[in-house]
Amino acid sequence: MNIHSYGSGSPKSFHAYPRGDFDLESGSTKKARKPKSSPFQPIKMLKSLGTRIHYYYKLHPLVVFFISLSFGLTVLIILSVYESRFRAMSNYQKLSMGYNDYPFTKLQNLVMVAGHSVFTSSSCGKVDKEDSWFLESYQKHPGQAATFLAHIKEGVEIAAKDDGAVLLFSGGETRKDAGPRSEAQSYWAVAESEGWFGKQEAVRWKALTEEHARDSFENLLFSVCRFRELTGSYPHNITVVSYDFKEERFAYLHRSAIGFPESRFFYSGTPASSTSKEAAMKGEALVRAQFHDDPYGCSSSLRRKKLGRDPFHRTIPYPNGCPEIEGLFKYCGAAPYPGSLPWAS
């Protein structure tokens, strides 16, 4: 049986029903509905909003201007706050990721010796001689060098008795004519030359330096940050070693400025030389009054003095190593710092 094709070309298509929805009951075809456009049209909404703003601007130009200005300032403030928090948290996360890299994680107390001069002699056998140190005019008294040695020894002995203490010598490159030598390194070198006063095995491995402080407040604040860099945490107890006549300055004014608990703050003072005590007491009364009015040393004469003690324009690395107290480093005011602090009880 042969199959034949009828006609030429391809067969025509056949549509049983016209296009559309065919209704069997009525025998009619419903036209297909066109899809509705989306109700959300951002371009039209923006044009409408722009038209309204333009309309109100014509009616009340000053009101619209001030509203726009206020909105812009608010956005800038919010962005600035979040940027600051993000940077602090970013730094904190970087530090936290390397927690196991901190060399002294098991130590929890800080013993800080405040520096007062730079050792300039090439011979460590003359550590108790005035001509081995760079002295300011008010420091040139017989027996002055011996007081520096007393501070170093006192710090070593306190740290030797505390298995959980870091010993920090604090003080920057404060004297131009002494060259780029820091007070902290001077004190460490003297301790080394003296064999750590018989406590080398107990102390040397945990005795380090803080080499940027330019005044007594920075001795304390910078050493706290340096402790954080070394241990990954903040000190539980703080002991400061300096002259006995500076106890009120450190134990009250500076301690209060950083909000450190009084019950965990200790002071060990040694006497000034007999020939300089009277002048030292008068000078201390003046400086104490200045810190009373300017507790963070960020204005007036205290600021000028601090800038003068930075002859080599060293860049201060803090608070990079202690991001949790960044606000404290930036704060300047007569009232106590209002922010939260990690050691607040």
TrEMBL record:
Gene Ontology cellular-component annotations: cytoplasm
Keyword Transmembrane helix tagged: yes
Annotated InterPro entries: C57A10.07/YOR238W
Keywords: Membrane, Transmembrane, Transmembrane helix
Domain of life: Eukaryota
Membrane-spanning parts: 62-82
Protein name: DUF218 domain-containing protein
